[in-house]
Each structure stands twice: as C-alpha cells, then as structure tokens.
UniProtKB/TrEMBL annotation:
The keyword Hydrolase applies. It catalyses: Endonucleolytic cleavage to 5'-phosphomonoester. SMART domains: DSRM, RIBOc. NCBIfam families: RNaseIII (TIGR02191). Belongs to the ribonuclease III family. Residues 1-99 form the RNase III domain. Keywords: Endonuclease, Hydrolase, Nuclease, RNA-binding. It holds the Pfam family dsrm. Residues 126-196 form the DRBM domain. This is ribonuclease III. Its EC number is 3.1.26.3.
C-alpha cells in the first residue's frame, strides 16, 4: 500500500468498477425474476470489503503485499481493508494488462462458490434490519452506531464504525469505504456474536 500508493489507489478504483459491473451482470443473468432492490443487496454482499478480504485470503494475497514498516508493525497485512484494497487493485491491473473478457473469467472463477450460494430470498433484509429484529425479540435496546475514524483521501476514504449493544455488553468495530457499508459489516458481526450467546 505504501509502495506506489497513488498507483494502487487508481487500480483499486478501476478494480472496484470492473468488479461491480461483472457481478451486476452475472446476478442480472442468474436471477431474471428478482427486482432491482434484491439485485442491489446481493451485489452489495458480494463486493463488500469482508467478502473481498476473504477471497484475498483464499488466494494468499497478503503474502505478496509490500508494506511500509508502520503497517508491518501494526499487522497491516492482516487488516481486512488492506486485503480488500489489494484485491481490487489486482483486478484493476488484470483488466489493464488484458481485457474485459479475461478479467470477467478471473472474477467469475474466484466468485464461483459465492455466486452458486447466492440466495435472493435471504437478501430481502439487510443486516441492520436483521439485527434490529433479533434485538427486539430478545427485548434488548437497539444498537448504537458511531463513526470513530475516517482515514485516507476524500476520493478513497475508509470509515471506521463502532457498534455497541449495551444490554448484551458487546461492541464491534468495522471499516469500509462508506459509512453504510461499515455499519452493515458491524451488524453482520453482531448477528454472528448473538447467535453464539
């Protein structure tokens, strides 16, 4: 990230756009009868930072990252946001070095299992809504979302959000390229924690 940072950010921008386009087209073709809202929620789940970081781990991308000393000391190669950004940059580089059809094949191969598991019926409620309903069933207070940090430049900012459940004495922190995505990631993590209580 710190080596050729500006170039990486440009590649991330390109990779993000190409990924969104290819996943959108694939979902459109796979699910001809679902509406725009469901398509959008499915796509959001597939292109969010946590999913990208998971795929980056599967291809052991972190082992190829060149990081500055500060990032290395803080365990930067394990951070989801860095892995997700690197994954997008790789897709952008593949697109530039080859063509749309090639990057399309790469993305669909990497995403095969996730696309095969995609279920529109489970996409009708976002994670914040699911969390709210789960807490109401338990008689717990609603979650508190707080923006605790914004890093990076305006066009490539990363937002860190903390979500707290006071009744359950649980809190999580997640980062993403929008506040909304970070809140959704927090809600998903809290749903997982609640399911284990």
């Amino acid at each position: 990230r710190s080596v050729g940072k500006q170039n990486n950010e440009r590649l991330e921008f390109l990779g993000d756009s190409v990924l969104g386009s290819i996943i959108s087209r694939e979902l459109f073709q796979r699910f001809p009868s679902i509406d725009e809202g469901q398509l959008s929620r499915l796509r959001s789940h597939l292109v969010r930072g946590q999913t990208l970081a998971k795929l980056a781990k599967e291809i052991q991308l972190s082992e190829q990252l060149i990081l500055g000393q500060g990032e290395l000391k803080s365990g930067g190669f394990r951070r989801e946001s860095i892995q997700a950004d690197a994954f997008e940059a790789i897709l952008g580089a593949i697109f530039l070095d080859s063509d749309y059809l090639t990057v399309n094949r790469v993305i669909l191969k990497l995403y095969k299992e996730l696309l095969d598991q995609a279920n529109p019926e489970e996409s009708h409620k976002d994670f914040k809504t699911q969390l709210q309903e789960a807490l109401q069933k338990r008689g717990s207070d609603l979650p508190q979302y707080d923006l605790i940090e914004t890093s990076g430049k305006d066009h490539n900012a990363v937002f860190s959000v903390q979500c707290s459940l006071t009744n359950e004495n649980i809190q999580v922190e997640k980062s993403a390229k929008s506040i909304k995505r970070a809140e959704q990631a927090c809600a998903e993590a809290l749903l997982e924690k609640l399911s284990m209580l």
